Amino acid sequence: MRNADSTTVAPDVLQSIARLTALQVPGVYALVAHGVGRRSDQGVRVKIDGLLVEMDLYLVLDKDVNLRQVSREVQAAVTRAIAEMVGMRPGRINIHIEDIHYPETS
């Protein structure tokens, strides 16, 4: 009997997918590292339990955007990316709005 083949995905890969996906959503200015640790979390914390992936994203949003709408769009985009790109099951995708970006005026 042949063992089933498997593929593993490193948490850093999931972080990158979530970060790049979130940055593509209109109204997201940046992600910010959160917490203390040896490595930067790049604004995304990942928890993996088998095939279930849960994430916390720490965002800086542009001024004059609907915070709830942008948050929901980020959640939907990241959920879709995780499911489609790596075939894992997205769980909670928590959004933390850390700041609002106000461009400097000259």
Would you write up a description of this structure?
There is one protein chain. The protein has 106 residues and is α+β, with helices and mostly antiparallel strands. It has a single domain (11-101), classed as Cation efflux protein, cytoplasmic domain (Alpha-Beta Plaits, 2-Layer Sandwich), CATH 3.30.70. It is built from two helices and four strands, in the order H-E-E-E-H-E. It has helices at residues 11-23, 67-86, and strands at 28-31, 44-49, 52-62, 89-101. Strands 1, 2, 3 and 4 form a four-stranded mixed sheet that branches. It is elongated and about 65 Å long.
Concise summary:
The chain contains two helices and four strands; from the N terminus they run αβββαβ. The chain is of the alpha+beta class. Helix 1 (11-23) crosses helix 2.
List the helices and strands and how they pair.
Blueprint: H1 11-23, E1 28-31, E2 44-49, E3 52-62, H2 67-86, E4 89-101
Parallel strand pairs: 3-4
Antiparallel strand pairs: 1-3, 2-3
Shape: elongated
Distance between the termini: 70 Å
Number of domains: 1
Structural class from helices and strands?
alpha+beta
Uncertain regions spanning at least 5 consecutive residues:
none
What is the mean predicted local confidence, pLDDT?
Answer: 90
Oligomeric assembly: single chain
Put simply, the count of helices is 2
Order of helices and strands: HEEEHE
Examine the coordinates and then state which fold CATH places here, giving the name of the CATH topology. Alpha-Beta Plaits
Radius of gyration: 15 Å
